[in-house]
Specification:
About 40% of the residues lie in helices and about 15% in strands. The chain has 10 helices and 7 strands. The protein has helices spanning about 1-5, 25-30, 35-55, 90-110, 125-135, 165-170, 180-195, 215-220, 225-240, 270-280; strands at about 20, 75-80, 110-120, 145-155, 200-205, 240-250, 260. The chain has a 7-stranded mixed beta sheet, sandwiched between helices. By secondary structure, the protein is α/β, with parallel strands linked by helices. Helix 4 packs parallel to helix 10 and helix 7 (about 180-195) packs parallel to helix 9 (about 225-240). The longest helix has 22 residues, at about 35-55.
Length: about 280
C-alpha cells in the first residue's frame, strides 16, 4: 500500500513556487554580488567563444549557422533547459550557445520559439521542507521543494534571436540547484498547447535524471523518476506535442526514445540544430 501511495504524485505545497521572466530573477534570488557578477562576465565570455566556435566548424562538418532547418510555417518550438546544479559553469555556457544558434535557425525558418528553464529556488527543500518539519513530518508528503520556472524567450517574441541579457541571466551561478523534470515538462507543455500553431515540438536539454534530495528522502528514491515517466507517457498518448531531448554528457534515451547524446561541448550546437531539423522534417513529409 505504501508503495502505491508513493507513486501517486503529490505536492506538499505550491505556495513558494515561482514562474518568472529572466529579468525578474533578482526578485527571487536577490541581486548578484560583485563576485557573482564577475562569474557571469566570465561565463558570458565562454558563451561567446562557444558561439564563435560553432561557426568555425572543422572541415567535413556542417556549421550550425549553415544548417537549414525545415519546418512548416505554422510551427511552435519550445526549448526547455535543465538548470540543475551539475549544469553550472561551462555546461550552461555551451548549452546557451547551442540554444542561441537554434533560435536563430528556427526563426529564420519561420518558427515561433520559446526558451524556458527550470530549477528550484533553494537547496535542501527550502521553505516547503521547513513547513513539513514544522508539521511533524507527515509521511509521504510529496514534492518538498520550491520550483523556479524561468521564461527566457516568449513564443510571441518577434525578434530573430534570444537577447544577450537573457543569456546573462541564464548563466547566473546562484541559479542552478535541483531539477523536478516532470513538473517542468508539464508546465512547458501547457504553454505550448495554449499556442495557436498547429505543429508543436518540445526539445529538452538535460544532463541527468530528476533530483531533489528532500523529495526523494521523504517519498522514495524513484518518486521523481516515476512522475517524469508518467508525464512523458501522457504527452505521447495525447499526441499533440512531438517531444525529444538532447543529453549533455548523459544518455537520455531511457526517458526520450527520440533523443541524441552529445559528449563533446564543441559538437552541441551543430548536433542540436541537426536533431531539430530531423524532428521538424516529419511535418513536411
Amino acid at each position: 500500500m505504501a508503495s502505491d501511495q508513493a507513486h501517486e504524485y503529490r505536492v506538499f505545497t505550491t505556495k513558494f513556487d515561482r514562474e518568472v521572466s529572466w529579468d525578474e530573477l533578482d526578485g527571487v534570488l536577490g541581486p548578484l554580488s560583485t563576485e557573482d557578477t564577475k562569474t557571469v562576465d566570465a561565463s558570458f565570455a565562454e558563451f561567446e567563444t562557444a558561439l564563435t566556435a560553432s561557426v568555425e566548424t572543422p572541415a567535413g562538418q556542417v556549421p550550425a549557422t549553415d544548417l537549414e532547418i525545415g519546418a512548416p510555417p505554422d510551427t511552435a518550438i519550445t526549448l526547455l533547459l535543465d538548470q540543475s546544479g551539475s549544469m553550472r559553469g561551462a555546461p550552461m555556457a555551451f548549452a546557451a550557445a547551442a540554444i542561441a544558434q537554434a533560435v536563430r535557425r528556427l526563426r529564420a525558418a519561420g518558427c515561433r520559439v520559446e526558451v524556458l528553464g527550470f530549477t528550484t529556488a533553494s537547496w535542501r527543500g527550502g521553505r516547503p521542507r521547513r513547513r513539513w518539519k514544522w508539521w511533524l513530518r507527515p509521511r509521504l508528503p510529496g514534492r518538498l521543494c520550491e520550483l523556479l520556472h524561468i521564461v527566457y524567450r516568449d513564443g510571441d517574441d518577434e525578434g530573430s534571436e534570444i537577447s544577450g541579457a537573457a543569456i546573462r541571466s541564464m548563466l547566473r551561478p546562484d541559479l542552478p540547484k535541483e531539477n523536478i523534470d516532470g513538473e517542468a515538462i508539464a508546465w512547458a507543455a501547457g504553454r505550448l498547447l495554449a499556442r495557436p500553431e498547429t505543429a508543436k515540438t518540445m526539445l529538452v536539454l538535460s544532463d541527468g535524471s530528476p533530483l531533489d534530495d528532500s523529495t526523494q528522502q521523504a517519498n522514495g528514491p524513484m518518486y521523481l523518476d516515476a512522475h517524469l515517466q508518467s508525464v512523458l507517457d501522457s504527452i505521447r498518448r495525447e499526441g499533440q506535442i512531438q517531444i525529444g531531448a538532447v543529453g549533455i554528457g548523459y544518455d537520455v534515451s531511457g526517458w526520450y526514445p527520440e533523443s541524441i547524446s552529445v559528449q563533446s561541448a564543441d559538437d552541441l550546437a551543430s548536433s542540436l540544430c541537426a536533431f531539430l531539423d530531423r524532428l521538424l522534417s516529419r511535418y513536411t513529409r
